[in-house]
Amino acid sequence: MATTGTLRLGRISVSLAVFLGLLSALNYGHCDEQVPLILWTSEGISLPRQSPPTVGHIVEEQQLASYLENALDVGPRNVLLFLQDKMSVEDFTLYGGAFGNKQDSVFPNLEGALMSSSSSLVLPAVSRIASNAVIGQLQDQLETSPLYMDAETLSQLRLNASSPALLVFRLPYGIVADLMSAKEVLSGNDEVIGQVLSTMKAQSVPYTAIYTALRPSREAASLSMEAGLGGGRSLLQSRYRDRERERERQRRIKEKAGMYGPVEFKEGENTCILLWAQNLTVGILRRGQWETHDLTPATFGKDVSPKLHGSSCDKSNAKLVLNYEKVLGHSSFKLIFAMSQRHYKVSARRWFTLDAVELEYDGTKATFNGSRNIYAPAEFSYSCASVTSFNAPLLVPRSPGDPANQWRVSFGDFQIQGFNVTGSEFSYASDCAAFFSPGIWMGLLTSLLMVLVLTYGLHMIMQLHTMDRFDDPKGPAISVPQTE
After folding, report:
1. pLDDT by residue (tens digit) across 400-429?
2. 360-369 confidence digits (pLDDT tens)
3. Which of 159, 204, 324, 370 is the most buried (most CB within 10 A)?
4. Whole-model pTM above 0.85?
């Protein structure tokens, strides 16, 4: 089974858990950046066999897109994406009944689905970046928008086998203090998977199902090779509690140091926009002098709740509105971030841009254009050490006559994400810093100069000629022509 990358009948739970556990040990150095991915189809649907990754290989974004494309080209285009907040291969070895305690398995519905499926694929090590891009890849291949569902509302939806659909089911995996709590959470997630699959079976709609996560649930060190011994579970439980206590200690240290979380805007119960900055400063030119105001204390910090009325988000556009009072003499003041995303054929992926930063005050609006300089892949966040409108500006006034010419904005350690937000954490950041920094250019030019000097020296040495004739004291003297 491990050599084919598929899960077969009868051996599914033990083989899956042991196989994933061994691969997690081989990928020890990268385990904190990878998650497993399991793909299967409904009963009676066969997919062509795909070459599995080699042992120890981490599937990156491009390779994952190839796997999904091959599966969806011939398989059902009604896709069920079970997206868990956290998951690692250790979850299968600890809770999948891999050590003879079959009755303790928390994945009976998942195992049953894989046993009844004639085509399934296991990718034990998918990079975190690739797993975060799954929704965007499926959206591009199916050419349809994702629908975020739950098991209860799925029965009210009528699907058509001829029309593609992307149904996303978010599954929790909370930070827990002991292993039994995590076991209960995973068991509840498996029940949700069972309910969804039962509903699809009742509607007789063929489907392709994918089970993966956004980030790993634990580090490689949390899984000991002694887990199969008598005291293995106690050892794992103790190490996990120690690590959670250390995380809590670090969290308290950050709180004492003045660290604060990002601004979150939620549409319903799901967060759709995140914003964080070390400082937010605006300034206006009055009587030849710049007057500035720091918006940071009113935006971030403990027990600070910024007013976000007027904000909105959907699959194509997002707008974050920060409302303030009494800023630089204006009774009402709004700082607005307008973003959009679309698919670009040249790069074959979706990108989002910060189209504009607007200052709205007492009925007047000043607009800075940022779409030329501030952009990132749609599944990433954007970050930059400095976003300003005056010093190496990334934001420029929309037109020469715009009121923005009388304003300055400056954002330090700026980070924003308006699409594909999961939970309360930013996705992988696309930084504004260029790859070739001044220091790198200086090093390259210095190295090139040294290579040129060395090449010239070697060339001069190679041009030296040694004597090929010598004077014999017993013979006539050597005559050397002047031309030689």
Report:
1. 888 999 999 999 989 999 998 887 888 888
2. 998 899 999 9
3. 370
4. no
